[in-house]
Amino acid sequence: MKIRKTLLHDKEIKVYVYENKKEETFVVAVPTQEWSFSFTYENSGEGFVNQLSSSLMNTGLEEQPAEELARRIYQWTCEM
């Protein structure tokens, strides 16, 4: 599991990224937003950022911060 730090609303938050290579899945969690998301390698395309962003907006995030966080998550999972 990787723990990444990023800024959200001028506060540093932790984003937990777990990769299960055997099952080819990721689980991402942001405890401060009470949010988590699970997806497979197949689902992690560029259009996938919109799904992450929409899910994050359901936690009360505004569109701009949700999109930025979704792009960071996408980038981190691509690096793993």
Automatic annotation (TrEMBL):
Domain of life from the UniProt record: Bacteria
UniProt xrefs under InterPro entries: Uncharacterised_YueH (IPR020260)
Cross-referenced Pfam families: YueH
Name listed for the protein in its UniProt record: YueH family protein
Classification lineage: Bacteria, Bacillati, Bacillota, Bacilli, Bacillales
